[in-house]
Structures are given as C-alpha cells and as structure tokens.
Fold:
Amino acid sequence: MLRSDSIDVRDMAIVHRTFRSAYAESAQLVRALPTPSQDRVTFLADHIDFALEMLHHHHASEDLLLYPLLLDRVPTQAAMTEGVSHEHEVVQTVLDSAVASCASWRQHATVETGEALATSLDHLNEVLQPHLDDEEQQVVPLAAVTLTQEEWDAVGEHSSAHIPRAKRAVTFGMILEPLDEDDRNFMKRSLPAAVRLLYPLMIQRPWTKYASTLRTGT
Ligand SMILES: [Fe+2]
Structure:
C-alpha cells in the first residue's frame, strides 16, 4: 500500500556520497605512493578496510530491513526491487576482492600489490556508482511512500551500530564533510545534545586530524 505522503529519506543519498568518493580517493592515495613506510601502509590499509566494511554493513542492513519490506508491501514493484537488490551481490563479489587486495598490500607493499589494490578499488567504484544511482532513483522513492519513518531510520541505525565506538567521530566527520549547511544540520539532529554542542571538539577536530593524515601523510 503506497501512501500519498513521504517520509524523510534524504540520509540515504547523504551516506552514499561518502561511498561514492571513498574508494576513488583511496585508489588515488595508494597510487601516489604505493610503497610508503609501514606505518603509512597500516594507516591506509585500515582506512580502506574500514570503508569496505562500512559498505558491507550498509548493504547488509538494507538486505535485512529495507528490501524485504518493499517486496512484501509492494509486490507490483517486485521485479525492480529484486533487480536492485541483486546488485548487492555483484557489489559484494567485487568488494571481497578489494578486501583480499588490501590484505596483500598490507602484508607486502610493492608497486604491483599497490596497483592491484588501486585497480580493485576502481572496479568497485565502477560497479557501485550505478547501483547507488538505481537505489536512489528507484528504491528510495518507493520506500519513502511505503515504510514508516521508524522503519526507515532503523535501516541506518542498524548500519551505524557496526561502527566501532573509537571510529564514530571520524566517520561522522567524514560523512558531513561534503554536505551543505542544511544537510549537516539534518544529520546532526541524530546526535545527543551534548555532542552537538561540543561538535567542533568531539567530531570536527578528530576528523580534521584524521583527514590530514589520510591526505597528506607519507
Ligand atoms: Fe544504500
């Protein structure tokens, strides 16, 4: 049953923006210096593993809490919903191969293992971008008139629950970085009041430090 009113679903495209840029940026950083110090390899490999893990959890949450509800409630759109849902399996295969390439580079950083990692991140990007487009253009509008706000918010909460406590500030800062003021304020609404108040100290500062190490570290 489709409603005439929509819930707020803008957080999907907001989170997707991070996924849309993270792998290209990582590939570029690895290519720029494929055989850096061991500390740098560890930092960057940790960053890439985390970005890959987050995508896995993002899709797993949708597989569990979004797609089944749509299939159940809007059978007339099942072909579309199943088609986009199936793209998760394709993305996961490429994601698994990026995880393996990252492990090889972490273990033995050479020009070859670095290029293999960057290539697998490029490949992930190529498969991921059209999937994110399909989801935003076809699935999200359907969810907006099918799920309750609570059901929708549960998808994001399930995914965020997998972010380790120590990485939460940096993750939040990373997601907010490309946003305009309006979307930033929208995302900040989910933060506890105390964290919102201390945002510059608790989130902006750790993210700025992390981003500087990520982008200019050697
Ligand atoms: Fe998504």
Summary: The first helix runs from residue 10 to 32. The pocket of fe (ii) ion is lined by residues 12, 16, 58, 62, 135 (CB under 6 Å).
